[in-house]
Amino acid sequence: MEDKFIVNIIHRPELMPEYSEKVTGSGKKENIGRKELKSESLDIFKFQQETAHKNGLKTTIQMTYASLFNEEAVQVAKEDHEKYGDEISLTLLGLPCPEFRDKYKTKDFCIWMFSLEDKKSIVDDVFGKFYDLFGFYPESTGSYYMDAELINYVKKAYPTVKCAVATCWEEGPKAYHTTNNSWYTFMDGGPWAPWIPSKQNTHAPAANKDEDSGIVAIPHLSRDLIACYDGNGSNFGTHPQNVLRGMIYDTKTWEFPYFYNLVDQYRDLAKYNNGYAYNMMFVGPGWLNKMGRWEQPYELLKKSYEDGMAYYGKLKKEGKLCDMTMAEFADYYREKKAYTEPECALWRDILYGSDKQLFWYCDPFMRACVNMDQGGAIVDLRNYAAKLKWPVGIGTKHITDASYPFLIQEKYRAGYFTHYAGEGTIRSCKFSYNGEEADLCQCRTHAHFSQDNNKRILTLDPVEIVFSDLSFKVQSIISFTEGSSEIEIQRKVYDLSNKDAKVTVREYMVACYGTTEYSEDMTGITLCLDGDKEEKIIEYAYKNREEKMVSASKAVAIVPQIDTKVSLRSDRKTAEGYIQEGYAFSPMFGLGYTDTIGDKEEITTWLRLEKEN
After folding, report:
1. 3-class state of residue 381 by DSSP
2. What is the pTM of this model?
3. CA–CA separation, 545 vs 236, rounded Å?
4. Are strands 408-409 and 87-90 parallel, antiparallel or unpaired?
5. Concatenated DSSP letters of 190-255
6. Would you list the DSSP string of 391-411?
7. CA-to-CA distance for 403 and 46, rounded, in angstroms?
8. What is the pLDDT of residues 464-519, one digit of tens each?
């Protein structure tokens, strides 16, 4: 099968970007309808369109509400649609303009943060104005984020819509902190590549037709799946000005090979996704204003855009890229992908020169991240099987926080490396012998991807454990079976320096729940060990209790706050299951199995995610 690399290039004539108004209007009274701002923004939009077309690329023109009041912007869209086949689309970004503020009496501009009543009213206004001008309703729309209630309304009221920009990957506390705590858009925990959102929750992909919201969702920018996860995503994406903001370019030559490497790594994802790979560039004109931005002059901003578009054009000429409009892509995606087919990414560091690898897995039941720099530990885990209803906006419990809650998140809840004797959230394995202990989190390794029918398999290079009087090797094999909502982890122990020795192995998971760094109330969580003839239960009360049971069929945690049931089970009858309650300074819970294992023996465990109610 020949690999297919698809690119969406999306432009929006955002004629009144607030961040540009601050520059062009410096020293003047605020006026987002300022003539100079409109004129410059329109010129930039036309430059972007011309640059794409010059390189043989078609675009999706996402008209903003403000641009619908500008005759020239409307005319450019119509002409480019006729001449180049560009799609005329509609975005719910770019709402601020005098007409909008006069009606809604607010400076809010993020559609998902409005009340549901206002969301519907705004959608009707914007879609109605679009229809009046073009004589048809759009086939695609979008925003930084669209919550499920908003998507469901758009699809019901405007059934022509088949595609939407629906989330910004890992745009959460890390991005918030790098905007001087001013950018209140929390939307961590979603897919990094296109998906079909469920009716219940935008982040969680639909598992079947009944859950299907009716649209194909695409991310707002294609991010670097290591650099963005470790730091601020706004510096690491396929948006030339993101790369400039991250200062990832040669200041003398104004070249930025990192951008090309990032595009190429997205091309590489075809290896893990049945020959299909996706990339997108979504750019508004505010980044290219004549006054410069991110400490770079306009000439560099312009060059970066031209160079980025030229690279896409080069790939297309070489037959290595297929440019599609959003609507075209939605049709392709539905034909190409089954509901339960996962999205996989074995991602390597292309920025810092390290050997680091992460593996990302996403399907309708979970999103998980495996870190090879920590011996194959699971460092991020979201329970999509719960299909958590999480309304966002004014009038809900989550006015600004649209993130999908985690069970494991090493950046916000410590991970393995901590400054005290407790543990952060992680799923890993410890080995001990004669009082010495080693965690696989301390062992760096690399993974190799393979696929066996409906199973995606990560085979990790063996690591060596060395104690004072014993050494041995451990190989981990991590498997994801499509549609199972389980992660299987197999450990093989071999080459013991003392063939008669037995080592203790402890397969463990430390977890909690939340969307930020700050701990949530764990009261109400139930921990349980199930056995053939008995059951042991801990009702979470911060008392640091532990229960154990040999031959436990499973160790379970029920987290009602996020409708989640998570469990571990083992293939070894001799294994002792355990449950652990945390305490106030370490508000986590633990599940796991402990057993002794000899040379050429192995242990397999399964982590399972379910909806609790």
Report:
1. strand
2. 0.96
3. 43
4. unpaired
5. S-SS-B-BBSS-SSSBPSSGGGB-SSEEEESS-B-TTHHHHS-GGGSBSSHHHHHHTT-S-TTT--
6. -BSTTSSBSSB-PPPBSEETT
7. 35
8. 999 999 999 999 999 999 999 999 999 999 999 999 999 999 999 999 999 999 99
**Number of residues in the chain:** 613
Phi, psi angles (nearest 5°) of residue 37: -65, -45
* CA neighbor of 497 nearest in space, from 476, 473, 462: 473
Nearest in space to 240 (alpha carbons), one of 284, 183, 193: 284
In 270-405, alpha helices (H): 298-317, 326-336
In this structure, is the dihedral angle defined by the CA atoms of residues 378, 379, 383 and 384, taken in order, positive or negative? negative
Amino acid at 161: V
Terminus-to-terminus CA distance in the chain, angstroms? 42
- For range 243-247, the mean pLDDT: 91
Which residue ranges form the domains of the chain, and what is each CATH number?
4-348 (3.20.20.510), 365-611 (2.70.98.10)
Using H for helix, E for strand and C for coil, what is the string for 129-153?
HHHHHHCCCCCEEECCCCCHHHHHH
Mean pLDDT of 19-40: 59
Q: Is the pLDDT of residue 211 over 60?
A: yes
Poorest-pLDDT segment among 95-104, 213-222, 460-469: 95-104
Sign of the dihedral defined by the CA atoms of residues 192, 194, 196, 202, in that order: positive
Is the Cα dihedral 274, 275, 276, 277 positive or negative? positive
Closest CA to 553 of 589, 584, 588, 577: 577
116 CB-side CA count, 13 A = 14
- CA separation for the pair 188, 172 (Å, rounded): 5
